[in-house]
Amino acid sequence: MLSSTQISFIKYFNSFFYKMWKNFKTHLNLLFQICKKRNREVHEDAVDPARISLFDDILNDDESLFINEQALDWDYVPSEIPLREKQQHYIADVIKPLFQGKSGRNLFITGPPEIDKVIAVKHVLRELEEKTNDIYISYIDCQKKETSELRKIVSEIINEELVVIAFEDVENLKEGEILNTLSKSFNKKCILMISDDKDWLKKLNKNIKSSLNADVLKFKPYNLREIFKILKKRASYAFYPGVIENRAIKFIAKRALKNGDFRAGIFLLRESGNIAEMEESKKISKKHCKKAIEKLDSFLIKKRKSTNL
Prior knowledge:
Blueprint (H helix, E strand, L loop, with lengths): L3 H42 L3 H7 L29 H11 L11 E4 L5 H16 L4 E6 L5 H11 L5 E6 L8 H9 L3 E7 L4 H4 L2 H7 L2 E4 L5 H15 L7 H14 L2 H17 L7 H8 L2 H12 L2
Parallel strand pairs: 1-4, 1-5, 2-3, 3-4
């Protein structure tokens, strides 16, 4: 038998918990309503992904995929030249004696028809120019210079004490005697001779070859992995981040390897970008690269013509 005090306590306890439960249910329901409303607002503000894909990937008139199109020029010298560090050090080593007032060594640079030989030499000469003003530097493209122009250049630098002279496409030099003149006219010099023709030095007149006494530096061809790495780096200079897909670069790398000329890869990067822009696309995809390949024949024809100048 419960006492009146115990009965009163039980009634109070039941009433207290009933009120708490009711209050909890009210707050829970309010919270549910708030969440429901917020969820509805989020869905109303969201845009259907299907609607985004229709127009969001279109390039506007004032937009470009290129951040620096010059990075795809033949004569562009990037701040880094991956995978050719040893060759650059070798080129620098034949020049270094000039810093001690001694004569440098002459160097014949050869390898497959790729632009990295030229870029490596230009990169070293740029660093040399930044390092000192005491060494005269002359870079000569033999495809673009007539013999008379070359003789004029030689006469202009004849009085220089320390000289580095680089000949690009030296096989197009019509008078090899100019090399003999340079070799004998300067006591403290370094002559760099660049050619795709690995046998050019062997074909030289014996007296000229003896006078030059040149070291030989061979550039080995790139494999597919190396071509992809270099093209990806070059693309990072040329395009805005995220513009070109990795599979597009891989596709271009395979084609460059097939053509046996790294320059074809640079050409395809530029053309793929141009095609993507013409189609108002914000991405360079494999389909743009396939269209660029259709223009590759015209590039190869131009390259053969320039080689035969």
